[in-house]
Design brief:
Blueprint: H1 3-41, E1 53-57, E2 63-69, E3 75-80, E4 86-92, E5 98-103, E6 109-115, E7 121-126, E8 132-138, E9 145-150, E10 156-160
Antiparallel strand pairs: 1-2, 2-3, 3-4, 4-5, 5-6, 6-7, 7-8, 8-9, 9-10
């Protein structure tokens, strides 16, 4: 064999090796792209968990929160302290009445916020016996804002305006 034949063979072998490397890179890239498309196309199925109530308990097994639907159809979210005493309750009744009640350490509702079915807001502050003593809302007769003070017997003592 002459040098020309050897040089020509070496040239052809190097060219085939370059083509082979290029084809392997393209094939690897195509496998990666196809694998990515397959993985992106997979979605986790949506999961629906249904129940009439959900209870959240702490590490000691005490109920700290509950989301429930009562027999009248009212949805309630109840939040409690570590002694399982309720301190906050959010509820929505079937008639659209929405309430937020905040309780003291004895479990007595001290602050209540409501949106009545007709859309009227109402805010009340209660004394340590749970009797509403101050109310802020709208007068039902003329829809004017009103601040009302009550005595222990629930009788109006002052009304502004």
């Amino acid at each position: 064999m002459s040098f020309e034949t050897t040089d020509a063979l070496l040239y052809r072998v190097e060219r085939l090796e370059r083509q082979n490397r290029f084809q392997r890179r393209v094939a690897s890239l195509l496998v990666i792209l196809f694998g990515g498309l397959v993985l992106m196309g997979q979605t986790t199925p949506s999961r629906t968990l249904e129940s009439n109530s959900f209870v959240l308990k702490d590490a000691a097994g005490r109920t700290r929160a509950a989301l429930r639907l009562d027999s009248a159809g009212t949805v309630q979210l109840v939040l409690a302290d570590q002694t399982e005493r309720t301190h906050a309750q959010l509820s929505v009744a079937n008639n659209g009445n929405a309430n937020l009640a905040l309780n003291d350490s004895k479990g007595i509702v001290r602050v209540g916020l409501a949106v009545l079915p007709d859309g009227t807001p109402d805010l009340g502050f209660a004394d340590s016996a749970g009797v509403v003593r101050v109310g802020l809302g709208f007068d039902r007769k003329d829809a004017s804002p009103a601040l009302v003070f009550y005595d222990r017997n629930k009788s109006v003592t002052h009304k502004i305006p």
